[in-house]
């Protein structure tokens, strides 16, 4: 019995280790876990090994309790209904804590509320944490989860240890990250990201528990300590708040690590596209939440002879290798995708990925033991009885409120995707030829354009906007800024982040990918989409790849290079209003350019790299002269 083990036995009052061998964990982890036990006072400690037997034990428990419902139509798949108050990321309660405020958030204009990250000083945060964490796991088991973001042992991967009192979170972490005792070996005495999560419902519970989903929505708090590489999340069991490997670690904390180490952690899909000539190229794309990353990542191309294979659908870690190529890995092991709208027409590859071993959260259940959500109208027979995400029963086809929550999600292993790329776990990553930005832009923004330079591409990324979606707590159809699709996920000062991007070409010999912007969501007067989207997006990707090969198919415009008329393959498409789809209304863009500049002046202020303002001024001048 070593010193640390004694601490556990003495100071924690014989908290039993229900499973696993405490002494098999590296010493730094034992100290971390001991600290967690002392602080949160769980009734036991359960050290996870990621095995199938472990999962079955937990699933069995959750089924008995009623947290999970087995979907008998599929193998080893389950439905979970959350407390209806715990359904999305809570950006307003998400904080980054550093002693220097301006390391974390930019200098915003006086009187303006900053939207690029929320800072709280470590002392004030400590007060908040002290109100919540002491004793917060009373009567509950504390699960210790060793996980790797990226293939275990890869030089690009990073290790985390999450403690949580939610076994739903454990089950989802199993799908989204790589949990294994091998992590302990790889870790040794090296650094790991410390992830602490509690649903904030110590026993005996003070609050009515709905749907067997303990949570504490009034007191949600998600705190990040980038210097300490530590995350503390309280009160929510919902994915983005509780699966700490994902947004908290792989984006917020990792973006800080990436800043320090000279690489990039981005909210991007990664896919390999093989055109008919067989020359595969890889793209990454950053769209705000619920704007089509998962769909594009695994799209079924409608053009004959094209092949798309997915490497990742949400997060990319990218770094230039010794040869100067930008290489990307997907740090995750699973897909946590928006369910509504997913069907055999829009995303058959996602559908095939979750036919077994999957968890569905806040979807509806059919009487024959299947899942149901908005978008499956043509795939589930009319008249079928369903139980909605709010536990209401009705027959399909009958009027009623939505069957699923708009942010309902499927969680499944990426390896089950029929078009998973054979190199998706390549420790060296895949070479990136094009970086694509985009958002939901109902007006003014053409289908596709190409940045004039790397710097211009950074400016385009900084000006990404999108109609609000259900992935966070915002309501309504407002157009919001979401620069680089990273607004909710920034780990440090956004101005410094832009400078980090601008610094990428400063190392000689680097081959820079081309940067593009796409918009699948432009609408006509009646609000109908001008572009069919989904599998037809391959036509735009094809144009992008041809540009990467240097084809002369673009003309310069004030916003960048746009397709020469007829250069996008429209063969076999129905009637498309190309004039409107590609138009660039002068007054729209004058307003938009000025509004973007004001946004950066207000939100990023003196931290904005001057070149970004210069490029916006050039753009404005070009439209004035038009
Ligand atoms: P997160 O996982 O939250 O980061 O979002 P995401 O970017 O992966 O979004 P996802 O691919 O799940 O897209 C969500 C919504 O966008 C669904 O409602 C889709 O139907 C819709 N969508 C995706 N691609 C297209 C498209 O090409 N055209 C149109 N009109 N809608 C699309
Ligand atoms: Mn996302
Ligand atoms: Mn997604």
Automatic annotation (TrEMBL):
GO molecular function terms noted in the UniProt entry: GTP binding; manganese ion binding; phosphoenolpyruvate carboxykinase (GTP) activity
Gene Ontology process terms (BP): cellular response to glucose stimulus; gluconeogenesis; glycerol biosynthetic process from pyruvate; oxaloacetate metabolic process; propionate catabolic process; response to lipid; response to starvation
Keyword Lyase in record: yes
E.C. number(s) listed in UniProt: 4.1.1.32
A GO cellular-component term linked to this record: cytosol
Cofactor list: Mn(2+)
Ranges for domain Phosphoenolpyruvate carboxykinase C-terminal P-loop: 263-621
PROSITE patterns membership: PEPCK_GTP
Matches recorded under CDD domains: PEPCK_GTP
InterPro entries in alphabetical order: PEP_carboxykin_GTP_CS, PEP_carboxykinase_C, PEP_carboxykinase_GTP, PEP_carboxykinase_GTP_C, PEP_carboxykinase_GTP_N, PEP_carboxykinase_N
Every Phosphoenolpyruvate carboxykinase GTP-utilising N-terminal domain range: 32-259
Enzyme superclass (EC): lyase
Family: Belongs to the phosphoenolpyruvate carboxykinase [GTP] family.
Protein name: phosphoenolpyruvate carboxykinase (GTP)
């Amino acid at each position: 019995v070593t010193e640390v083990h004694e601490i556990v036995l003495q100071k924690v009052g014989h908290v039993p280790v229900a499973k696993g061998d405490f002494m098999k964990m590296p010493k730094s982890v034992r100290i971390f876990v001991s600290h967690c036990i002392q602080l949160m006072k769980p009734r036991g400690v359960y050290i996870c090994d990621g095995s199938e037997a472990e999962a079955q034990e937990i699933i069995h428990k959750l089924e008995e309790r009623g947290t999970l419902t087995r979907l008998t139509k599929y193998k080893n798949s389950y439905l979970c209904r959350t407390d209806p108050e715990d359904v999305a990321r809570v950006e307003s309660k998400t904080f980054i804590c550093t002693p220097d405020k301006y390391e974390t958030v930019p200098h915003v204009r006086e009187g303006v509320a900053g939207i690029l990250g929320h800072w709280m000083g470590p002392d004030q945060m400590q007060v908040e944490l002290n109100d919540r964490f002491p004793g917060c796991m009373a009567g509950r088991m504390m699960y210790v989860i060793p996980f790797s973001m990226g293939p275990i042992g890869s030089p690009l991967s990073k290790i985390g240890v999450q403690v949580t009192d939610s076994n739903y979170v454990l089950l989802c972490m199993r799908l989204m990250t790589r949990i294994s005792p091998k992590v302990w070996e790889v870790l040794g005495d090296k650094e790991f990201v410390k992830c602490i999560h509690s649903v904030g419902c110590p026993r005996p519970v003070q609050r009515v528990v709905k749907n067997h989903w303990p949570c504490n929505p009034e007191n949600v708090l998600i705190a990040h300590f980038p210097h300490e590489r530590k995350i503390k999340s309280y009160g929510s069991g919902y994915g983005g708040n509780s699966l700490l490997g994902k947004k908290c670690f792989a984006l917020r904390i990792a973006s800080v690590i990436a800043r320090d180490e000279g690489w990039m952690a981005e909210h991007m899909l990664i896919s390999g596209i093989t055109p008919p000539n067989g020359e595969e190229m890889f793209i990454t794309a950053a769209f705000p939440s619920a704007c089509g990353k998962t769909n594009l990542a695994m799209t079924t191309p409608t053009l004959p002879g094209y092949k798309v294979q997915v490497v990742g659908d949400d997060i990319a870690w990218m770094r230039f290798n010794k040869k100067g190529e930008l290489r990307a890995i997907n740090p995750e092991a699973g897909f946590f995708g928006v369910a509504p709208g997913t069907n055999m027409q829009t995303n058959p590859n996602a559908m095939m990925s979750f036919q077994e071993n999957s968890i569905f959260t806040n979807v509806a259940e059919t009487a024959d033991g299947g899942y149901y959500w908005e978008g499956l109208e043509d795939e589930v027979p009319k008249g079928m009885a369903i139980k909605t995400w709010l536990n209401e029963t009705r027959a399909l086809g009958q009027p009623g409120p939505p069957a699923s929550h708009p942010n309902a999600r499927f969680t499944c292993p990426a390896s089950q995707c029929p078009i998973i790329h054979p190199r998706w776990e390549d420790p060296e990553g895949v070479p990136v030829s094009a970086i694509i930005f985009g958002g939901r832009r109902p007006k003014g923004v053409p289908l596709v354009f190409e940045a004039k330079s790397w710097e211009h591409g950074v400016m385009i990324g900084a000006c990404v906007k999108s109609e609000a979606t259900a992935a966070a707590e915002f309501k309504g159809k407002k157009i919001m800024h979401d620069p680089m699709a990273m607004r909710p996920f920034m780990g440090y000062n956004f101005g410094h982040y832009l400078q980090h991007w601008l610094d990428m070409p400063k190392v000689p010999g680097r081959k820079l990918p081309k940067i593009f912007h796409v918009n699948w969501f432009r609408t006509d007067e009646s609000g109908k989409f001008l572009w069919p989207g989904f599998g037809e997006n391959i036509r735009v990707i094809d144009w992008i790849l041809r540009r990467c090969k240097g084809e002369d198919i673009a003309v310069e415009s004030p916003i960048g290079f746009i397709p020469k008329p007829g250069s996008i393959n429209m063969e076999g498409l129905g009637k498309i209003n190309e004039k409107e789809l590609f138009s660039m209304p002068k007054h729209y863009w004058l307003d938009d350019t000025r509004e973007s500049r004001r946004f950066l002046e207000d939100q990023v202020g003196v931290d904005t790299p001057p070149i970004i303002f210069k490029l916006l001024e050039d753009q404005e001048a070009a439209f004035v002269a038009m």
